Amino acid sequence: MTTRMDFLKESIQSLRDQNLFTELPVLSTEQRNRVVMNGKEVIMMCSNNYLGFANHPGLRAAAREAIDCWGFGAGAVRQIAGTMEIHIQLENMLAEYKHTEASLVFVAGIAANRGTIQSLMGEEDAIISDELNHGSIIDGVRLTRSRRMVYPHLDMDGLKKALQETKDARRRLIITDGVFSMDGDIAPLDQIVELAEEHDAMIMVDDAHGDGVLGKDGRGIIDHFGLDGRVDIDMGTMSKAFGSLGGYIAGRRELREYLINSARSFIFTTAHPPCVAAATMEALRMVQDEPEHLKKLWDNTRYFKKAMSDLGFDIGHSQTPITPVMAGESRTAVELSGQLFKEGLFAKPIVFPLVAKDKARVRIIVTAQHTDEDLDEAIAIFERVGKRMRLI
Ligand SMILES: *Cc1c(COP(=O)(O)O)cnc(C)c1O
Known about the structure:
Strand content: 15-25%
Number of strands: 13
CATH class of the largest domain: Alpha Beta
Low-confidence stretches: none
Order of helices and strands: HEEHHHEHEHEHEHEHEEHHHHEHEEEH
Strand order of the largest sheet: 3-9-8-7-6-4-5
Bound molecules: pyridoxal-5'-phosphate
Number of helices: 15
Shape: globular
Structural class: alpha/beta
Helix content: 40-55%
Mean pLDDT: 97
Largest sheet: 7 strands, mixed
CATH topology of the largest domain: Aspartate Aminotransferase, domain 2
């Protein structure tokens, strides 16, 4: 045995010492309201399966049919031989849904962010980014040699200042999450658009947690604010509310053409299995034709949040189904999650570096699939554990 890799053991020990080490929890069931997690039956309260589409019979059937028709794998990267008609159908459907000229699908949301930011922005440009933007945006920014300006979370004066300070840049891109995934708050996109137009800067919004959740028919944050046509780059994922997999960029036709020719995370990776495109199209059809899913999601969200704040929990200032149950120290969040699990509820602790060291929490995402009994049981568990731990 050599000692070359011993640093791993030390790094892991150091994470353990800080309560920051995590292991992968393992499901022995499909993703749904009640699951078997690490061998125990629990209410699932932290998936991104907002609309219950991940295990919906409609998506299963669409995927099965596509497997029969197209086989399983795509067999090549998109621009060599991997683009099937069904991939193009999905992109057309996404563009129509998002009210844009075109869209381009990437294998994952992280690939969409990395490839798009990397290919659009060069050394003479400036990127202006909210401090709480998702890690995949930060990765994308790091792949460029652009000047980086990070403004305080949601701070429009900070954004304005950054715009004034980057006047000399060749091009400027403002990037923000639509919904911030740890707190569930929403970017003031109407104000951002005004500032961007005033200063002639491009805007990119990451709608991963807004897709299928906000706006009419779940069309996302741009629809929520009525800003069709005023956001240059609309990024989203098919992997959350749409229950599938993949990321996409919606915008003008030239944006799609440019990315096909220059986004490395698009060029150097194999196309999705065609059944992924089929299932995603079914999800897009369902979110538009069957309003009951979205309605149930919001009814459940309001019910759960009200009960939790009536109990006295600090649930932050979320405007979406994302509900942070604040615990303070990492240790407390880990303890809270562990006790909830013992009582039959699964929600992972969210600790540094995902959030600030003193803002550790358990993040709850209620879905359309939770029944009244699920929610009442979850609330009762939170009450018992919260009292025991003196959080309420
Ligand atoms: C989940 C998420 C992504 C990544 O999407 P994947 O499709 O899971 O790779 C990007 N941005 C935000 C804000 C997200 O929450």
